[in-house]
Here is the input.
Amino acid sequence: MASVFRSEEMRLSQVFLQVEAAYCCVAELGELGLVQFKDLNANVNSFQRKFVNEVRRCESLERILRFLEDEMQNEILIQMPEKEPETPLPREMITLESTLEKLEGELQEANQNQQALKKSFLELTELKYLLKKTQDFFETETNLADDFFVEDTSGLLELRAIPAFMTGKLGFTAGVIHRERMASFERLLWRVCRGNVYLKFSEMDTLLEDPVTKEEIKKNIFIIFYQGEQLRLKIKKICDGFRATIYPCPEPAAERKEMLASVNVRLEDLITVITQTDSHRQRLLQEAATNWHSWVIKVQKMKAVYHVLNMCNIDVTQQCIIAEIWFPVADTKHIKRALEQGMELSGSSMVPIMTEVETKTDPPTFNRTNKFTAGFQNIVDAYGVSSYREINPIWNTFFNGRYLILLMGVFSIYTGLIYNDCFSKSFNIFGSSWSVQPMFRNGTWNAHVMEKSQYLQLDPAIPGVYSGNPYPFGIDPIWNLASNKLTFLNSYKMKMSVILGIIQMTFGVILSLFNHIYFRRTLNIILQFIPEMIFMLSLFGYLVFMIIFKWCRYDAHTSQKAPSILIHFISMFLFDYDDSNAPLYSHQQEVQTFFVIIALVSVPWMLLIKPFILRAQHQKSQLQSFTIHEDDIEGGHSSTSAQKKTSGAHGTKDGHEEEFNFGDIFVHQAIHTIEYCLGCISNTASYLRLWALSLAHAELSEVLWTMVMNIGLRLRGWGGLIGVFIIFAVFAVLTVAILLIMEGLSAFLHALRLHWVEFQNKFYEGAGSKFSPFSFKHVLEGTEE
Here is the structure.
């Protein structure tokens, strides 16, 4: 029972560790993953704990590791370690810190140099294209020869054929601007300068890269001609407002040619330097990618160990660390061995000491699982954790995924064989127990049959119609021919669902007995379990008995007990007694009256007796305490142990005696009694959902067969062959979508509700706390998520 029904036995112990060995011992327990540490510093601020500085150092290392991960993203493939590294010793943190800080500094320096170089490369590239476009513009305007940079174009800027007072030289500004800002830039320039400027621009064909964001940018080259200092200042302000970059551009063609050559040389040198910088940065990232996962695991383990140490007390006088741990009793040897390994690893000579602690606190709940049962337990944890050593649901519920599909598939096949229903059609595996041949005489219907009823029926009174041997398993396929098939299945499935529900609920009440026995709750056995069983069995248990008795009692030939119960699981739901009030056995009315009376008696038994007994026990304990106190005053000594014994015998929690309130206890018992009595009725009715789901499923299956598949089977010839192929595809899609997916999910949800509510409320409370051991495996999995 300890492994199937209940949580494992848990123990609370104090562990005394030498300061030098505490880190290694906690690390070994983290590798083991079977110990839950109790926070002994719950009232202490997180920033005032002993190892807060070590935690901050680990968080600083995590920051560096995140920085490295961001740098490696989409550039370097992070390598996974062959095996998980062990927890580093405290002295290794210094080495790890220096390694990561050095790597971070070198990488940041490389990034800064790379950004500066790329920024210079971007500016030189823009200047290069600006010089080319400027020269192209001057050549176009002055119809220069094909020879590039031959004539001096500075005279182009001289004003000619204008009045003497306006004689002067035009100035120009050349620069680069983002392409999406060009339209607004041109409009504002025209309005501010009132049309007294001449703007020429062209798009840069080369895509440039932002040195910071590494995004592609598109820019335009522009040249603005103007006259006067005021226009120059206005143009400069507009360019600054639109974040346009202005480059110096000489007027003479020779100077532009010389500047272009210089820019090309600088670009070639810059490309070489950028390539070397990228290579150095890639080497740094490759080094980080090789060890990154190992570093992350080490830092996470160190941080987890220091978090646990912050939950412990430090005895300054004894130079030891005190921890309180919950652990399964069955793993005591493994835990002691882990502590010894931690002591040996740290080089300490003091053996860790474990002492059991007596406590009234409910231990955490722990159910040992394997790969298969872990999924079942996870669903239970999602709904609520069972209280300590309380009976758990029988393997609790269904596992997500493949096991769920497997179990539902197996059960669907089983119920299909019981109802002999496969896509609304029956299998004739064992041969029908009914035959129509004896009802014929000389090729025509027997006159006796025609006189008896206007309907043609299989009359079991005629010899040979019924073989006397029921169908071995499931429903006889002859029922597919009956006009009252739905009525028969309706009664059959309804009563089967009631029988199943009452049996399961009774089993749930029996499971509560194991809880009462385990916790030694004698009052609950006598004043709760027994009346609950009497109420359940006298009313609903008798109902099940009568259903089965009626199946067994009916016989078509002699109205006596039939040779087999299986045939009456079929026939009794079709053929009923004409007189429904006729008793099925002698003294039936007296027996039923007796069961009703004892069911009514069990209600006040369950409601009234327990609260008054608890009040009497409380008054008795109070009288004993008062007598002991007076004896202590007269004798001049204390009887602390006797007082503790008295108070502990009548319910304490966390060392404090609980206040007894008769009204609260009576109301609680009344609520429990009302819920149980009404719940037995409502829960029994709730199990009828199984009947409704089964009928709905069968009717949908029959509709799909009649309205879809049957149409294709009626077609003849080549057209029928093609039609069957198409119609079967439609039939298969609808069957999967409606019957398997929609109806299957609906059946699963309703069955899950019956399991959680109608069954488990008889014994299961779900009021405990989950066992959360300190485990590096859980820590690392949480980090990945």
